[in-house]
Every structure is written in structure tokens, then in C-alpha cells.
Amino acid sequence: MLIAKPDFKSVFRFLNASEIRFVVVGGIAAGILGEPRATTDVDIITFMPKEDLDGFLRFAGKKKVKLSEKLIRKNAYSDAFFRVYIAGTQVDFILGESDFEFQVLTRAIKGKLYGVKIPVASPEDMILMKLVSGRALDLIDAKAIQLRYGKKLDDGYIEKWGKRLKVQRGRGHVIEHWKKLLKSGYRE
Predict the structure, then answer these.
(1) Dist. CA 127–CA 157, nearest whole Å
(2) Which CATH architecture best describes the domain 1-121?
(3) What is the rounded (10 degree) CA torsion for 130, 134, 137, 138?
């Protein structure tokens, strides 16, 4: 079975034109900040009150974005998540609700992919998100970012939010994973 090549350029152009405030996270951000790796979708965090969701859905409808308005309305406010397909590419919207997600959005750095400017999560925030997940691939992504940024990373920020996320998400491993990353490799 052939899988269609993702059209990230069209996705980012659409997101920029939609005028929603967003930050790219997930595999794309990990690849920009650490080591490039394959991914077929786009993950973003945005804060979207109901009136903004209505405007976004109208804009998406005009641009012929593949979506289920009924499912989006249901999921957006029950799961703080919804999915659309832009130019055939899966785009997962994480609707920010926490202080941490707001930090990720406000601390975004400027990135560029396929000639399109995009906001990308900071290296520290990406490391934290990857450590919270704790999946093997996410830990590899966190390590790649840690190796690339080395002493430029704000360790205090990572420790502070690692402790808070441990409490908020009930996961005790965030700081332990961070300490293992620091011990496990070269850090300039």
C-alpha cells in the first residue's frame, strides 16, 4: 500500500492564514530541534475558545479542509483535541488548557520548514513533553534535543516544570528521565 507524501508546506500556509495562535510540537518539532526523523502528521497546541473554533471551522470550510464539524465540536470540548486533514495531511489540534501548555505557546521560537515560517516549541518545552510521554521514541527525541542544545538549555526551567508536571499529571518519572539524559551523554 502506498502512503501519500504529507504536504507540510500547505498545512503551515493554511495554519498561518487561519490566524489562530499555534505552536508546532510532536515529531516535526523534535526533528527541527534535535535529529530529523520521519513523521506523517502535524501536531499543534492552540488555545481556542468556542468563538474562535466557530471562526476556524468557517475558514476551514472555505478552504475545503477535510473535517467532521460535528465530531470536532464534540471532541474539542470533551477531549481538548480534534483532527483535520489539510491537503491530505493529518493535523492534530491539542487545545491547550494547562499552565504548561500556555507556556509552550508563549515561549515558542521561530522556525522555518519548506520555506514557511512557523512557531515551534522551545527546546526545553519539547524535552519536557517528550519526558512526560516516556515512550521510547520520545526519549530518543528528548536526548537528541539535549545533545544539540547542551548547556544552552535552561536546566532550572526544565527542573521546575518537571516537578510541576509530576504533580499535575501524576507521573514521577519526568525528573528521573531528565537526570538520566544528563548523565548519559556528552553535553557541551
Answers:
(1) 11
(2) 2-Layer Sandwich (3.30)
(3) 0
